[in-house]
């Protein structure tokens, strides 16, 4: 198989996995929403809203291809991943440290929690991997 055909196969597999991730993410959200409705405990739902978008972001980062080597890129990690990850886990920290959730509600208006999760996943993947062997 030549290089062009292998890229097409990779993108086809990536798309199939993306569809499976979206479907499974929907099932996870629905399960924890039903559980929260019945038990009045939102712990699982909050975890799902943090973990699933993070996985989506890592999968989006794989669109460029598999990494060639692992190498830490600190500016991306510190300036992009850390702030977006902190905003992603902000509601989880409310279980351990009392704080004002109004800041988080303003920041995550219109689906911002998914955006922070995807940014965190992409930035984490890009910060610890390199596609080029010369880097």
Main sheet: strands, sense, barrel: 2 strands, antiparallel
The unreliable regions are none
Total strands: 2
Strand order of the largest sheet: 1-2
Helical proportion, percent range: over 70%
Number of helices: 5
Structural class: mainly alpha
Strand content: under 5%
* SSE string: HHEHHHE
| Separation of the first and last Cα atoms | 28 Å
**Radius of gyration (Å):** 17 Å
**Which outline best applies?**
flat
What's the overall average pLDDT, rounded?
A: 84
What does this structure look like?
This protein is an all-alpha fold. Helices cover 73% and strands 3% of the residues. It has a two-stranded antiparallel ribbon. The protein is flat.
Structure described in brief:
Helix content is 73%, strand content 3%.
Summarize the topology:
Elements: H1 3-39, H2 43-61, E1 69-70, H3 74-93, H4 102-107, H5 112-128, E2 129-130
Antiparallel strand pairs: 1-2
